[in-house]
Amino acid sequence: MEFGNTSATDLALLVSNGETTARRAVESSLDAAEGLNETLNTFLEIDRSGALNRAESITGREGVLNGVPIAIKDNLCVRGMQTSSGSRILGDYHPPYNATVIERLLQAGAVIIGKTNCDEFAMGSSNENSAFGPVKNPWDVRRVPGGSSGGSAAAVAAGIVPVALGSDTGGSVRQPASLCGVFGLKPTYGRNSRYGLVAFASSLDQVGVFGRSVSDVATILEVIAGRDPHDATTADIPVPNYSAELTGDIQGLRIGYPRALFGEGLDTEVRASVESAIDAYRELGAEIVDVELPNAKSCIAVYYIIATAEASSNLARFDGVRYGFRAEDAPELRQMYRRTRDEGFGAEVKRRIMLGTYVLSAGYYDAYYRKAQQVRALLREDFRKAFESCDAIITPTSPTPAFLLGEKVDDPLAMYLNDVYTVTANLAGVPGLNVPCGLSTDRLPIGFQLLGPYWSESLLFKLADAYERAHPFTARPPIYAA
């Protein structure tokens, strides 16, 4: 692929300066997507004609993403393109409108080449729950790419696109970013609009960004972030010039080290890589301070109560009446509802709907859902106290490198524990960023996670950029488009 190693910002400059054309850049990306899709199963739809028509229309300096090809997770609405959320129940639904983040990408000159595969309704940590088959990790096709935004992570890792969008409800951007060796951001809750994002758990969902460099992730966030009248949860807070913060200077910044999160269940190679990154930050002039997050140990239980409760409510709208899949040969309305939902939803989605319905039911609401919300409030307070003594916190992103396809699919608890380090950010609403920091002995990527206070994306980018300058992650997977 001609532009496989070119960053989004550099590619936009090449197009704007006339050194290449948007069509040439987009065609190269489309060729890579089509050529690798049989192997990786990354895309559910590749829009060659639409993308080329869009590229042809770009003749001048439309914006900071002029002619840049981008991939979009299949739970974000793009007018005229399928939005299945990886589920049979949405069928071949084609929305008549764009999500707000999509509108902003298009205004900046980006070109959408296709919709990426994902765990059904973003429920999963391996991308094995898609109704359309699993995505394969470009570092080792026997292994998972992580989930639920595995298709977007794999597309960036494989050099098909320089940047992609995903969604993060409990780690669904950061965890696949770690397993695929790319940068992945979950911003502060309310930083990005959720209008046009198919809802999983509304108090946790955020649109996130994948990229092969900190600079590209920062640029995309500058474009898509900000207040949206279509989404009342977006904050009316100015969007900083994130790129201007990438100075490489982090002298005097304090990074919190929660030692309790580096214990049982953490792969030894992951621990060693993240601790090496901590040493690197010391050498770069940052101060490492011990911090405590005492309620983090309860977060998996809390997350899988709150997230499933909200999923039970949100997914009630998929009933076969208005759009999507409808079961045949159902003579009565109630029977049609039952058969449609039974045939249309996959096993993991049905598991979470049932769990969520249970914790919201009479007699169990106070024991489970209310208690989970109380612990969530304690976690927010843990972060508030921790950030009094540090500017950001460092943790592993995933407890292990990419695991084998099928290894955990029959053990939901083992699968859920893959989110042990990432769900805290969603429950507290704080931003989190995965940074690639090495390879295992099996040549599988390892990443660490930076967490910051609300609206501190600039700080996270600054810290990640300093590390990237000193320790660039230049390794590429065996399956790569360039």
Can you describe this structure in just a few lines?
The chain is an alpha/beta fold. Helix content is 37%, strand content 12%. The protein contains 15 helices and 11 strands.
Distance separating the two termini: 4 Å
Which class best fits the helix and strand makeup?
alpha/beta
CATH architecture tag: Alpha-Beta Complex
Regarding CATH, which class? Answer: Alpha Beta
Going across the major beta sheet, what is the strand order? 1-3-2-4-6-5-10-11-9-7-8
SSE order: HHEHEHEHEHEEHEHEHHHHEHHEEH
Q: What is the count of structural domains?
A: 1
What's the gyration radius in Å? Answer: 21 Å
CATH topology: Amidase signature (AS) enzymes
Give the overall shape, derived from the CA principal axes. globular
Biggest sheet character: 11 strands, mixed
Give the number of helices.
Answer: 15
Q: What is the mean pLDDT? A: 96
Strand content: 5-15%
As a percent range, the share of helical residues equals 25-40%
Structure summary, number of beta strands = 11
CATH superfamily: Amidase signature (AS) domain
- Uncertain segments of ≥5 residues (pLDDT<50)? none
Q: Describe it for me?
A:
Helices cover 37% and strands 12% of the residues. By secondary structure, the protein is of the alpha/beta class. The chain has one domain: Amidase signature (AS) enzymes. The protein has an 11-stranded mixed beta sheet, with helices on both faces. α2 (22-40) runs antiparallel to α3 (48-57). It is globular. The model has no long low-confidence stretch (mean pLDDT 96).
